[in-house]
Write a structure and sequence with these properties.
This protein has 552 residues and is mainly β. It has 3 helices and 44 strands. The strands form 11 sheets. A 6-stranded antiparallel beta sheet has the order 7-6-3-2-37-38, with no helix packed on it. Strands 34, 36, 39, 42, 43 and 44 form a 6-stranded mixed beta sheet that branches. The chain has a 4-stranded antiparallel beta sheet with strand order 1-32-31-30, with no helix packed on it. The structure holds 2-acetamido-2-deoxy-beta-D-glucopyranose (NAG) (3 copies). One 2-acetamido-2-deoxy-beta-D-glucopyranose binds at residues 75-76, 110, 151, 153. One of its GO terms (cellular component) is extracellular space.
């Protein structure tokens, strides 16, 4: 892998276009307290089953490469021979694209092997590492190093994984490697790059949480605890794993009710914003929302019966001496939802349905309304219903936070092949953005604008980050500075998602509307693995546009 990143700042032309785009958006979008939706592109050619924002503000998306032609050609008129594809033996179409946020434009990319239901994450130098998939892709790793022109594309590594990884989850580790956890029929984990042989470590928790004929524990929710261990949630419970010794150091109770919340009873989960980073033991909380009652998958598959999804979230303080799940009711039932922690620390629940199961053809009753969750409000008043989209985003859809604070929504393909006719939820090729209400023009005078450092900069662990920013209406209370790791999203889970609230050192007014805030950068890689983060200044819950800061 490349050792030195060379991200170039967006060209001046790109910046101007971006400015125009933003002006256009602010003029043409109706406002409302519940956020707004905008259709970005009508046909991106593929269904965005997997999605990752990179440091050049382009989003890599891909579906799978063995289910027939997509609606976008491969670059330069190339074709792939695909003898094992049941639909087309020679495929001249792309199954991965790059979406340029500033230009609202796509270009096709070339994946060779089958990326279906794979996993991934961003390495410390900004490369997208993607692992596994199906058939010829099950043991591959694929790398995509971002570029400012159109020269970059996927490269693939054979036998990069020890075993097949299909429906596994990755997490970026403090040393910059990635751990790959589980997957269908794999009750173990491994690392990329590989450690010494054998590199595969068995994990009984994964066989114990595997429900007979239903699984309910795929795409486990993996989070790096601030003590360096991994919190792993699957089905209805969790463990804390010391992956370096392969020892379970803590076992968490089952969520009250015991209903499953992992694939195909797909709920979602996030680590709530990490605060008070100087504390000896950090109070870290995980929030798991939605899912489906046990048996939902089999009832949908065998009996055409679509059971109502779960309408609860469960929240737990993972570093408590005696941790307990606390249940909260959501405004609605949700399965296959995505959870995105926004730059101001609020959590967006978006996409999915309210009955049935994950898996082909098994989801029903699309949920068009996102819900916003305010972690710091009292229980019972945390949810705020958001305005609906018009597009169902069922199985195989994604949501991705952008640096400008919008959430990019794509995908949905609950079928074995691309299927646009005669089905309940046609394969979805449209790309939309959800703008939370913090982007509305009424907050123009509250919204900070970061003036320095520039769009790309570097900070060290245990250092000071000095940010200058403007607020046209002036700052009335202390601003927050947040750091967001760009997560890899598929199957309702955003891998390595992490938001930190940085501790203040000083805060100064240095001009009429200009301010400077100094914050401490995280002191260790257990708090924040190395790599590029989006840094935001947040004034009264209104975030600035982010800047990319490399933590090393
Ligand atoms: C096609 O499938 C066969 C049998 O599973 C396998 O041996 C072969 O490597 C596959 N070919 C490609 C190009 O993936
Ligand atoms: C396509 O052609 C352009 C121009 O010749 C070249 O720069 C680019 O690398 C090519 N892309 C691929 C994927 O071959
Ligand atoms: C689409 O789904 C319908 C209904 O299940 C089916 O009859 C049709 O064959 C499918 N088309 C494709 C291209 O898979």
């Amino acid at each position: 892998m490349a050792s030195q990143a060379k991200p170039q700042i967006l060209s001046d032309i790109n910046r101007l276009l971006y400015l125009f785009l933003m002006l256009f958006l602010s003029i043409h979008v109706a406002s409302g307290a519940g956020g707004t939706w905008k259709l970005l592109l009508n046909n991106v050619g593929i269904s965005a089953m997997h999605s990752q924002l990179l440091i050049n503000d382009r989003v890599i998306m891909y579906d799978r490469s063995n289910f027939g032609p997509s609606q976008i050609s491969l670059p330069n008129g190339t074709c792939r021979n695909s003898p094992n594809d049941s639909v087309s033996k020679r495929d001249c179409t792309a199954h991965s694209i790059e979406y340029d946020v500033a230009l609202n434009r796509i270009r096709p990319l070339t994946v060779q092997s089958n990326t279906w239901c794979s996993s991934g994450g961003v390495t410390p130098d900004g490369t997208l590492l993607q692992t596994g998939g199906d058939k010829d892709g099950e043991r591959k790793a694929r790398l995509f190093y971002p570029c400012d022109d159109e020269s970059c594309d996927w490269s693939e590594i054979d036998n990069a994984l020890n075993v097949k990884r299909w429906y596994a989850s990755n997490h970026v580790l403090p040393d910059g490697r990635q751990i790959v956890v589980g997957g269908r029929d794999e009750f173990n984990f491994e690392f990329f790059p590989k450690t010494n042989a054998p590199n595969t470590y068995s994990l009984r928790f994964l066989s114990e949480t595997n429900d007979l004929d239903q699984e309910n524990n795929l795409y486990p929710n993996v989070f790096l605890n601030t003590d360096g261990n991994l919190f792993i949630f699957a089905n209805n419970r969790a463990i804390l794993l010391d992956y370096s010794k392969n020892t379970v150091v803590k076992t968490y109770p089952e969520i009250p009710g015991g209903e499953p919340r992992s694939y195909p009873s797909t709920g979602s989960a996030v680590l709530l914003p990490i605060k008070n980073l100087e504390a000896d033991v950090i109070e870290l909380e995980v929030l798991v929302c939605g899912g489906a009652p046990k048996g939902s998958y089999l009832l949908a598959l065998n009996e055409n019966t679509f059971v109502k999804a779960l309408d609860t979230c469960a929240r737990i303080k993972i570093n408590d001496a005696n941790p307990k799940w606390v249940l909260e009711k959501m405004p609605r039932r949700r399965i296959m939802g995505d959870m995105i922690v926004l730059p101001n620390g609020q959590v967006l629940l978006i996409n999915g349905g309210s009955s049935g199961s994950a898996g082909w053809e098994l989801g029903r009753e699309p949920v068009l309304n996102p819900d916003l969750y305010h972690p710091d409000k009292p229980i019972g008043s945390r949810f705020q219903v958001q305005n609906p989209s018009t597009i169902p985003r069922m199985y195989h859809s994604t949501a991705t936070l952008l640096r400008d604070g919008r959430v990019l929504v794509g995908g949905s393909n609950p079928h074995e092949f691309y299927n646009f006719t005669g089905v309940l939820f046609p394969t979805e090729l449209r790309l939309e953005a959800f703008s939370p209400s913090y982007l509305e023009s009424q907050y123009r005078n509250t919204r900070p604008r970061i003036m320095s450092p520039s769009l790309h900069s570097t900070v060290n662990y245990g250092g000071i980050l000095r940010l200058r920013f403007r607020v046209l209406g002036g700052v009335k209370s202390l601003v927050k500075v947040t750091m967001v790791f760009p997560s890899f999203t598929t199957h309702s889970f955003s891998m390595s998602q992490r938001v930190l609230v940085l501790d203040h050192v000083t805060s100064l007014r240095i001009g009429q509307w200009t301010y400077e805030v100094r914050v401490k950068t995280p002191r260790s890689a257990n708090l924040a693995p190395p790599g590029y983060y989006m840094v935001f200044v947040v004034n009264q819950d209104i975030p600035s546009e982010g800047i990319w800061v490399r933590l090393q």
